[in-house]
Structures are given as C-alpha cells and as structure tokens.
Amino acid sequence: MLQWADVRLALRWFRRAPAATAIAVSSIALSAGAVAAVFTAVRAVLIEPLPYARPDELVLIRTGIRDARESEGDWVFRDDAREILRRTRTFALAGVWGNEVFDLAGDGGAPPEALYGLKVTAGVMRTLGVAPMLGRAILPEDEAAGSTEIVLSYGLWRRRFGGDRRAVGRSVTVNGHDCRIIGVMGPEFNFPLRRQAAHTPYPYVEFWAPMELDKQGPGGGMGMVGRLKPGVRLQQAQQDLASISAGLAHEFPAADRDRIFRAGPLRDRTLGQAGQALWLLMGAAALFLLIGCANVTNLLLARGLAREREMAVRMALGAGRWHIARQLLTEALVLALAGGTAGFGLAAAAWRVLPKVAPAAIPRLAAARADGLVLAAALAAAVLNGLLFGTIPAWRAGRAGLLPVRGAAAGRRDRVRTALIAAEVAITVALVVTGGRLLGSFLALLRTDPGFAADHVVTAIVPLTVERHPSIEERSTLFQQFMNAVRAIPGVASVGATDALPFSGENHGGFVTASDAAMESREQLDAEIDLVSGAYLQAMGARLIEGRWFHAEEEDAGGVAIVDEIAARRLWPGDSAIGRRVCVWCTPEKPDDWKRVVGVVTSMRHWSMEGPPQPSVYLAGHGRVFLVARTNRPAGETEQAIRKAVASVDPQQAVLLSVDLRTLVGDSLAARRFLMLLLAATGGLALALAAAGVYGVTAFATSRRTQEIGIRMALGATPRSVHALVFRQGFAAVAAGLAIGLAATAAAERALRGRIPGLAGAGAGDVWIAASVVVATTALACWAPARRAMRVEPVEALRVE
C-alpha cells in the first residue's frame, strides 16, 4: 500500500528533477490518453447495448439467392414479409420498414423541405420495445390505406417546430395532404442506426409514418426486424426461415424459386466491418501504451543509476530493501496517476473535436463522449502502466547492496534497457507498417477511377410524390420541365435522370441473361439495372464504345437497353452486343422482359471503390429520382442554381439534396478515412515516443562512457571511429526490434487478412516504405548522441569522475 511519507518524498524528488518528471508524465499522458480516446469510441459503438429493449433478441431478416452468396442483402420483398409474419414459429414480434421521402410544405416563413425517413408497420416500434417521448407510437389501425399520421424525430421536432410540445396533435401538409403529428421520439432514438440511403443534409432518420403492408404488389426491397421468442436461439430462427423459404418456393415458384431467407443479429448487421476496425484500433492503442511503459521504465532505470549513492546511504542508515523498492514503486504510481489524469484531459479534448468529423456510417460514434467511465479507464491504463514500468527499477533497487552498482550489474541494467528499446521498436514497426499498409490501400482507393468525372457532376434528389402527382404522365412531364430548367443554367453541358445514382446508397441489382438456355439453367449475370432518361450517361461522363445513345422517344416506348463493357463481355464474349437481346429480371416462369441492346458504354462503379466494378445495364424509362447535371461551374454555385431552377417550375417542390458527386464518393470512404486518421495519429505518436526512447537510452549510455571515449581517443581513435562505435551499439537494439516487428506484423496480418478492409489490397512496397520511415527516424535518434560523442575532448573526458 502507498504510504503518505513515500508520496511526499516522491513529490519532493519530482520537484528536484522537473525535466525528467515532465518527460515521464507526458509519455504516460500520451499513451493513456490514446487508450482512453479509443476506448471512448469502442464503448459507444461496440460495448454499450443497442438503445432498444433486450437488444440481444433482435435480428435482421435478409434475402439471399440460392447458391449466390454475394447477392445476399438486408432486405425482403413485401409479399415475402407478409408470409414470414404469417408463418413464423420463432419470432415473438416482427416489423417491416421502407425508405421514404416526404415533402413538408412551408409554413410560418419556413420553406418547403424534403425529409428523409421511414414508412413502418406498427410492429417495428413494438419489436424494438421503444415508445415516443411525446404522444403515441404507430398502431396497427394506423396502417390502413390513406392513413395520415407521422412520428417526428427529436432533431426534426427541435429544428422545425422549436421543441414546442404542442406540436403533437398539430396538422402539417405533407405530400400535398394534411398529416397529423402523433408523437415525438426521444433524443437517443434512431432507427436504423446505420443508414443505407443517400447522403442527406441531416444524417439521421427524421420521421416514421405508417406503412400499408397488405396492399397489393411485391414492393421494393424493405427492411425487416424480428424479436426472437424467449428461449429461441438464432440457429432455430435460421431453420424456421429456411422452412418458410422452401414452402414459398414450392407454392410460388415464379417469385420465390431462388430466394432463401436468413437472420443475423441486429448488432452485427448494424456495425458491419466497423467493429473489427475499431478493435484493431484498440489493439494499436494498447501497443502504444506498452511503448510509453518502456520509455518510462528506461527513464526510471537511468534515474536509478544516478541515485545509486542516495540508495546506498539510505540502506546504510537502516532502510530495508523492501522500503527502497516501495519508494520507487510509489514514485512510479504517482507519475502514473498524474499522467493518467492528463491523458483523460487529452481524450476529453479530442472527443470535443472528433464527433464533428465522425462519419455517419459508424453508428453512435458521433455521440461518443469522454465521461467518468473513460476517466476510470485512463487511470486504470496509467496505473497498469505504472505497475509495469515501476516494477523493474524497484526490483533492481531491492537487490542492490550498500555500494553503488558497477561492472556486471550495470551491464545487466544496460541489457535490460536495450531489450526495452528493441521491444519499443518492434511494437512501433508493427503499428507503422500496419498503418502504412492500410494507408497505401486507402490511397489506392482514392486513385481508383470510378468511371465518371465526379468533380464536374452535380446531382439533386427531387422526389415527386404520388400523392401530389398521381399519374406517371404527370410526374414524367414535370420532371422533364425540371431537367429543361436545369439545362438552361449557364455552364451546364448535359442533364439526365436516374432511379439509382452511384454512391448514393440506392442500388437496383438483378439478374440479366442473353439466352433462354441460360435462363433455364440459372446461369444469369448479377448486374446493376438502372432506369435512366435524358442525357444521363453523357452527363455522368460515360464513353460510348459501340452503338448509340438512347433516343428521346424510347423513354416512353421502352424495349431498349445500353450495357456497359463488362456486361457485354460476359454476356457475349468475343462478339458485338449491338442488336442482341438481353432479358431483365427474367425467370422460366416470367420470360418476357427482353430488351434490344443499342449501345455499349464504359463501366462505372456504383457502390464501392473496392474490388472490380459490377456489370451494369441501363434501361430507357421514367424511374426518376436523381437529377444529374454536368457543369463547368463551381459545384456550390450549380447546387444553388439547381434549387432555384426547380423552384421556378414548382415553388412547392422540395429538393432533398443538391451536392456534387465527389461528396457522395467521399462519403463512401468516410469510415475508412476516419479510422485511418486515428490509426495514423497512433502510429505517428508511437514513432515519436520510440525515437525519444532510443535517443534517451543512447545518450545516457554515451554519457556514462565519457572516460572510455576519452581514453580511446587519447590512444589514437578517430572521431569517425568513435561515431561509428556509438552509433553501431545504439542501432543494434533498433535492428533487433525491426526484425522482430516485421516478423510479428507478417504473422498478425495473415491472421487479420480478410477481416480488416485494406490489408489484403496493400502491396509489399507499402511495407518497405513504412519500415524505412521507422529505420530512418530511429537511426537519426542514434546518430545525434554519436555525433556528440565524436566531439569529446580527451583531456576533459579523462577528468570526468
């Protein structure tokens, strides 16, 4: 236990050695602060339970294609959702939702606003076990056709309605109709936590409205969440869903022959790959803590040698070995507590800034804050650090005798310090090389050609609701007027529209085939299938390889398609695609949707910069949501001009989004970029601490050899040979650490490859660049003391006692 007298003595010694104390506290603060900062993120994202009742019982139901694992997605069709709800034996509750955009009319001076939210069945809130902060939730009777209820998010309630509690019960105009606000969710509620839809001005769901699940039609892809019955395990739910999918395939072969349903824990599906990346970051912070530990251990060992006379005198006056060891351990723990407190301050300061740049793709990260639990974590890390770096000096002091240590004992201490330096360098190599590989992979992603000139493409989401514009003809005419107005903007070269924009989160995957035989054998091509109009492909910068573009009249008639070069090569290898037929979403039971290919274009990436591009098929049609313009004006000017152009046609039409396409591409990499930033900061600090440790040990060892160096030079040694001797002996530990670090890194990467995005795609060049940075930095730390040693004057050195 700590004795107050030992604490006072430790504080007195720290006042006598302010420089060494400041270095030790700073080292501990940096390492403990890094652990606390990363722990803050890990706790918010991975450790704290999802903000729903009994979250371990919640699962996400998914649709897969038999024998095609890559086609599995977190969605179900409307008809399938109804059948799962009717037939399940393992789910106590379940709910279905779909993305929705509402036009909120202007009122009280507020302009019209497009809101991104969800249409949900009443089962969603009941399954999650949540209730509104104000008002009531959506009830089963609200799901009837024509229902006009809406539940607001806390953010929308505060932003648009000023936090007025009287907003509940108020009617607002949504999609041209009166809609009654029935509730407001609490500030902590957000569902789904990881949003898949397009970038929007507000990165969270803003409303929940009733869904009519029983209306006719298959509907698009919808989310489905279920709560397991008490005592039911996930494997039993999987078997239940497999039985349901087999039954539907038998009863409805035209629609469900190839579909299979699966369930996964909601937490896993929500986190995606962010969880593994955060654990990697936590491991990096723990290794960084060990570097700080080694640095302070070496500092205390050096101070121990300088205090040998003091310790010998105290032992001569009756102090026991345990008392001496306890004093040194007390000093280490006091340093640790001071450094841990400072580390918490650094972590708290960091998390005042990091939430502003935290990507929405990592759920709950923006809500992370350094609090009392994080302070406890920082102090625990620092105390553990203190116990580690205080034990060796205390043990050494406890073994010391009445006379100061000389000769072999001092040599053993030098070997301990050398081993610690090798360990520091090995850990630093692991951090810097792994970070270098991930950075190299990330830079390669940034250099990857998406297939379009994102810097010169501006897009807007202009949602035309069925309520305001019931007929397809009316929506088509109005959207054409919008495109004409945008086309008239100075600097706009071409304008088009599509129902699924690359990197927006919207994708319309499906199967295409070029022959009846391939359809029968299920040897179909999994491709992105988009409806486009106007000069969409030209606006995106696609290059025509063969054939022609769509004609305006083909948008109404349909029947034609343009394929990209990947689809053309796979469907008709070695032959021209022009004039060929391609069947879209066809099955043996529904074999009639054939399109004639009129053009082949270059490929565009649709949802990821990683991996090979996906084949794409473009159909002429009226599925318009995203308006796209190619311009030579600054993106910001064009964004505002598009909003004004839309308002000039229909002042009540809201625009959900107006942004350059580069922003959407950047959003797809936001999570990787954020984690790279934190890992790069950890690696950079580790390199700085390791260099400081190498410099400190080499400089201290050199100062203790001043007499020896003077004798060598008096006997004829040249300054160059002295420099080489000191540098070689200092760099020996660095070389050992480099070898150990590279071997350990290679083993760790083999274990992590495939789990951490970016490790598999990095090249050997990234390893050598990162290793070279470590070598150069530590070599400079060895060079400086060696440079000082070669300037020693022999006469002055021989006078040193």
What would you note in describing this structure?
There is one protein chain. With 801 residues, the protein is an alpha+beta fold. Helices cover 51% and strands 17% of the residues. The protein is built from 25 helices and 22 strands. The strands form two sheets. Strands 1, 2, 3, 4, 5, 6, 7, 8, 9, 10 and 11 form an eleven-stranded mixed beta sheet that branches. Strand 3 (91-104) and strand 4 (113-120) form a beta hairpin. Helix 1 crosses helix 11 (321-357), helix 2 (18-47) runs antiparallel to helix 21 and helix 14 (472-487) packs across helix 19 (635-649). It is elongated. The two termini are 39 Å apart. 46% of the residues are buried.
Radius of gyration: 33 Å
* pLDDT averaged residue by residue: 82
**Helical region count?**
25
Low-confidence stretches: 405-413
Tell me, briefly, the overall form.
elongated
Q: Please bin the fraction of helical residues.
A: 40-55%
Distance between the termini: 39 Å
Structure keywords:
single chain; eleven-stranded mixed beta sheet; elongated; alpha+beta; 51% helix; 801 residues; 25 helices
What does this entry show, briefly?
By secondary structure, this protein is α+β, with helices and mostly antiparallel strands. 51% of the residues lie in helices and 17% in strands.
